[in-house]
Design brief:
The protein is an alpha/beta fold and 393 residues long. 42% of the residues lie in helices and 16% in strands. The strands form three sheets. A seven-stranded mixed β-sheet has the order 3-9-8-7-6-4-5, with helices on both faces. The chain has a three-stranded mixed β-sheet with strand order 1-2-11. The longest helix is centred in the last third of the chain and has 20 residues, at 293-312. The chain binds pyridoxal-5'-phosphate.
Length: 393
């Protein structure tokens, strides 16, 4: 019998357990909703990115079922061979209209959209200038591209300018930020970064995964929120969060989109969405246009819950969005807070290294439009009880 060549992984797992970072997967016993059942317990769910409750919206389910009946369960191919149906093309046209760009292309996930795009447009002669808290998919795309990665301190456009000034003139330069940062809920320094991109002729890219469906008119995202249409070359969005289904997309000019259809590796080498997913996303876009009151409710719920947490004395950082972190610092303490909340009927995940810095462990909360005032008050009361018990407030 040979020795297990993967035995080092056991050591890694033991290390995670020692550091209090080992997590069991929480399992939903019911649908993804504001109140649901997880690991056999009824909970108020503050852990999902289902901002508008669209995962269970009747209009989306109806369209998904109709597409499933009409076109079947899968596409059987990547987009560039036989996996492009009319419904995929329709979704891309609608996304381009929604984002006010010439064209759009859909990837299998937001992760694939970011990583596939950055890797496709840069080479090892080029540069990525990236906010230090940008999403992992941006970092992985930058690594795949083999471009030089220059990281600027969070939201610090002046520091980014200093970096840019020191770069050689040769080589393409991509300036990139998240629109909303997923762990802190704050906004990227978009207006100042757009100025910088224009000063130095940089490619400007924004990952609006958490902003689409949340910020801007009808949820068009942070570019719309800041009035920056025409100043961002590459807009990424996801169909997996507020849109309620699965997928990611890139919106921009026609050259960009046609290039990605030829060189975006996830587009070329991974099977396209089942038609029911595309139909779901089309219905979600209809809902964003027809039911903007959902977004209004999301924001009033956000204000109520955020004020409540702050009022209790928790450290909620600098959030400006429905994502509100409760920062406790120590990872084991954050996991303990999350576990105790769960026992009391509130599902809010603990998040530690490497997702956030080692000394910034937290419980992350995300409010949805579908939470009732009673749900949110219950969650606040539970935070108060457990926070006092653990000496956090
Ligand atoms: C900022 C950000 N970008 C991109 C993604 C990836 O999106 P998706 O889950 O659709 O792959 C996420 C989510 O996980 C995210 O938080």
């Amino acid at each position: 019998m040979r020795n297990d060549p993967l035995s080092f992984l056991g050591d890694e797992i033991t290390a995670l357990k020692t550091q209090g970072l080992y997590r069991h997967l929480r399992v939903l016993n019911d649908e993804q909703a504001a109140r649901t059942r997880v690991d056999g317990r009824d909970v108020v769910n503050l852990s999902s990115n289902n901002y508008l409750g669209l995962t269970t919206h009747p209009r989306l389910k109806e369209k998904a079922l109709a597409a499933l009946e009409q076109f079947g369960v899968g596409t059987g191919s990547v987009r560039t061979i036989a996996g492009t149906m009319e419904i995929h093309m329709e979704l891309e046209r609608r996304l381009a209209d929604f984002k006010k760009t010439e064209a759009a292309v859909v990837f299998q996930s937001g992760f694939a959209a970011n990583a596939g795009t950055v890797a496709a447009i840069l080479t090892k002669e080029d540069y990525v200038i990236s906010d230090e808290l940008n999403h992992a998919s941006i970092i992985d795309g930058a690594r795949l591209s083999r471009a030089s990665i220059k990281v600027f301190p969070h939201r610090d456009a002046d520091a980014a300018r200093t970096i840019v000034r020191e770069l050689p003139t040769a080589g393409r330069k991509l300036l990139i930020t998240d629109g909303v940062f997923s762990m802190d809920g704050d906004l990227g320094a978009l207006p100042a970064l757009c100025d910088l991109a224009e000063e130095h002729n940089l490619i400007m890219m924004v990952d609006d995964a958490h902003a689409s469906g949340v910020f801007g008119k009808n949820g068009r995202g942070t570019i719309d929120h800041f009035g920056l249409h025409g100043r961002v070359d590459i807009q990424v969005g996801t169909l997996s969060k507020a849109i309620g289904a699965l997928g990611g997309y890139v919106a921009g000019n026609r050259n960009l989109i046609e290039f990605l259809q030829h060189r975006g590796r996830p587009f070329l080498f991974s099977t396209s969405h089942p038609p029911s997913v595309a139909a779901t996303c089309l219905a979600a876009l209809d809902v964003l246009l027809d039911e903007p009151q959902l977004i209004d409710t999301l924001w009033s719920n956000t204000a109520f819950f955020k004020d409540g947490l702050r009022g209790l004395g928790f450290n909620t950082g600098t959030s400006e969005s429905p994502i509100t972190p409760v920062i406790v610092g120590d990872a084991a303490k954050a996991m303990r807070l999350s576990d105790r909340l769960f026992e009391e009927g509130v599902f809010a995940q603990g998040i530690g290294f490497p997702t956030v810095a080692r000394d910034k462990a937290r419980v992350r909360t995300i409010v949805a439009a579908t939470h009732t005032q009673a749900d949110l008050q219950f969650a606040l009361d539970t935070f108060a009880k457990v926070g006092r018990e653990l000496g956090l407030i």
